From TrEMBL, chain A:
It comes from the Eukaryota. It comes from Saitoella complicata (strain BCRC 22490 / CBS 7301 / JCM 7358 / NBRC 10748 / NRRL Y-17804). Pfam families: ER_lumen_recept (PF00810). Belongs to the ERD2 family. InterPro entries: ER_ret_rcpt. One of its GO terms (cellular component) is endoplasmic reticulum membrane. The chain crosses the membrane at residues 56-76, 97-113, 119-138, 150-167, 179-199. PROSITE patterns: ER_LUMEN_RECEPTOR_1 (PS00951), ER_LUMEN_RECEPTOR_2 (PS00952). GO terms for biological process: protein retention in ER lumen; protein transport; vesicle-mediated transport. It is found in: Endoplasmic reticulum membrane. This is ER lumen protein-retaining receptor. Keywords: Endoplasmic reticulum, ER-Golgi transport, Membrane, Protein transport, Receptor, Transmembrane, Transmembrane helix, Transport.
């Protein structure tokens, strides 16, 4: 564990609490992409298969269960409790391509051609693009509630912070996981435009608005 | 690479 990894994980946790807070306080899931949320459930279920056979390190296990549980809970909230507020018409990014493309990447790049390793690789590639339906929805609406942008920022910062964590581990421990690093870099690049608008507008106290 | 202890990151 190093400071970048810890901050990354805390940022990931924060993103989920911000999302739940947004849904609760505005009593609405407007502006939140159901498709991205569904992809995250798929990401966590395929990545954390090792929950079935261990080893169960306390920190990792609690976090894994939390990420699976909270992502399923958000889907439940969106599907049932706050269904009418869901932007179904605009939230129509074709996730089939993301899932299919990630699966092909997982078949090509994996540590071993076994079910769990292919699923682990699949989860990394899918996570790297899972925010696209959310960013697409943002693009379609052209603006977002500030709290929603805080959520997306915290979620993007988590993987961005894993990059210095990997560099640190490579230097200090001689350990490097190329699939995770490469997918993590792609994921951070996917967020680049969003980060730019977030830093130049939201942080300055302005509303998140995209040029028409 | 993967160690016998499994994946240690989230």
């Amino acid at each position: 564990m190093n400071i970048f990894r810890l901050l990354g994980d805390l940022s990931h946790l924060a993103s989920i609490f911000i999302l739940l807070h947004k849904i609760r306080t505005t009593k609405s899931c407007a502006g939140i992409s159901f498709r991205s949320q569904a992809l995250y459930v798929l990401v966590y279920l395929t990545r954390y298969l090792d929950l079935l056979w261990g080893p169960w390190l306390l920190y990792n296990t609690v976090m894994k269960l939390f990420f699976i549980g909270s992502s399923v809970y958000v889907l439940y909230l969106m599907k049932f409790d706050y269904k009418p507020s869901h932007d179904m018409g605009l939230d129509n990014f074709k996730v089939e391509y993301l899932i299919g493309g990630s699966f092909v990447m997982a078949l090509l790049f994996n540590l071993a051609f076994t079910f769990d390793e292919v699923m682990w690789s699949f989860s990394l590639w899918l996570e790297s693009v899972a925010i696209l339906p959310q960013l697409f929805l943002l693009q379609r609406t052209g603006e977002a509630e500030t709290i929603t942008t805080h959520y997306i920022f915290a979620l993007g910062a988590y993987r961005a912070l894993y990059i210095p964590n990997w560099l640190y581990r490579w230097v200090m421990e001689g350990r490097v996981e190329f699939i995770a690093v490469f997918a993590g870099i792609i994921q951070t690049i996917v967020y680049a435009d969003f980060f730019y608008v977030y830093f130049t507008k939201v942080i300055q106290g302005q509303k998140f608005e995209l040029p028409a | 690479g993967k160690e016998k202890g499994g994946k240690d990151e989230l």
